[in-house]
Amino acid sequence: MNTLEITKKILNKYNIRANKRYGQNFLIDDDILTGIVNVADIKKEDLVIEIGPGLGNLTKYLLESAGYVIAVEIDKKMIEILNDRFSKYKNFLLLNEDILKVNIDEIIKKIEKESGIKYKNIKVVANLPYYVTTPIIFKLLQDENKINEITIMVQKEVADRMVANVKSKDYGILTLMVKYLADADIKLEVKNTCFIPAPNVTSSVIKLIKDKKYTVSNEKMLFDLIHSSFAQRRKKMINSLVATRFMNLDKSFIENIFKECNIDFNTRAEELSIEKYIQIVNNINEKNK
Ligand code: SAM
Hints:
Helix content: 40-55%
Bound molecules: S-adenosylmethionine
Order of helices and strands: HEHEHEHEHEHEHHEEEHHHH
Distance between the termini: 66 Å
Number of strands: 9
Low-confidence stretches: none
Strand content: 15-25%
């Protein structure tokens, strides 16, 4: 039976419908499902965290290739289905939780302690609920955790923002955060007909490999600077920083920093590379010493 037939059968048997509130669009295309697993390059020595397993269409493939799978699903209705399908697997832990509230490292630690196995890689693989994509990405990338690689399906538009070039319309907070914290690569484009129900948008599978290539004297200040700079995207960056009271710095102080960093006073937030944002932070910190 293929995944489309399995999905229809499950929806019938349990008499359920996709819940919009939880962003449920179930993947029913086996080529895409195997494509995601191939992109994630899952091996037996990997521990995989799946966010939002839903009916378990992707979970089934993950369980076949990974050493261990932790699946975190917010919707109680899905839990019975997932238990019926996968409780026979010894390498499977299902949690009925909101991923944004889960302490990922604690769970990994517990599993490694119980099994006596130290997993080589910790990989996240997910068809993300679109309503909450950005907070999940920030949590996975920003939190200190053991995750090395993240392979996720998101709206095409969000994937494009993650890999956008400086001075383009897609370039923004998400781009800069991803640039600072990871290497990102769009791997697949997925038509809306590959889901039940079909969403209104095209999707992309993007792979993020966590990698901090840059050093900055104050990481929190860098994140604050990025957010403040884009708070009023159409304004000159200096004015946006003043309006959002970034570090409570006055205009002349910021102008001085810009001058020392060789940045034109008329520059807008989307015109600066991550290297320039880092230079600004380092320069401010030098002055505050
Ligand atoms: N993985 C399944 C698939 O590909 O067919 C379902 C993907 S569906 C787009 C998103 C899933 O994430 C749903 O099962 C939904 O209930 C779940 N979900 C939504 N918000 C969540 C959250 N905050 N934490 C964990 N799971 C969540």
